[in-house]
Amino acid sequence: MRLITLALAALLLLIQYPLWLGKGGWLRVKDLEQQVDDAHAKNDELKRRNGKLDSEVRDLKDGTGAVEERARYELSMIKQNEIYVQILHKGQIPGDGATPAPPAADEPAKPARR
């Protein structure tokens, strides 16, 4: 009787192995579900990014507002008969918004001519 009980317990453990650790086991299924959820999240993020890029492309193709805005901010272009005013903070070089001026030597700095 004891031998039959041990044999049945061993068979039960052998049957459980594929259920837990086999190719279609619960642990593998859980891992695949996590991968699917991660892929869905990434796809949603990429869809939002593509939507933004699509609207920007349509705006660049159809309207002139986006082109003008890019020309103003990225290329510092101005319209005809407009006046461009640049405000410099103390120690900045004209034409460069981030580089501080080198320390002055013995003579005072001369204003830039345009």
Automatic annotation (TrEMBL):
Coiled-coil ranges from the UniProt annotation: 29-63
Keyword Transmembrane recorded: yes
Subcellular location: Cell inner membrane
Periplasmic face of the membrane: 22-114
HAMAP family documented for this protein: FtsB
Lipid bilayer topology: Single-pass type II membrane protein
Family: Belongs to the FtsB family.
Disordered, as annotated region: 94-114
Quaternary organization: Part of a complex composed of FtsB, FtsL and FtsQ.
Protein name per the record: Cell division protein FtsB
Function: Essential cell division protein. May link together the upstream cell division proteins, which are predominantly cytoplasmic, with the downstream cell division proteins, which are predominantly periplasmic.
Natural source organism: Pseudoduganella flava
UniProt xrefs under NCBIfam families: PRK00888.1 (NF002058)
Keyword flag Cell membrane: yes
Record's GO cellular component terms: cell division site; cell septum; plasma membrane
Keywords (A to Z) from UniProt: Cell cycle, Cell division, Cell inner membrane, Cell membrane, Coiled coil, Membrane, Transmembrane, Transmembrane helix
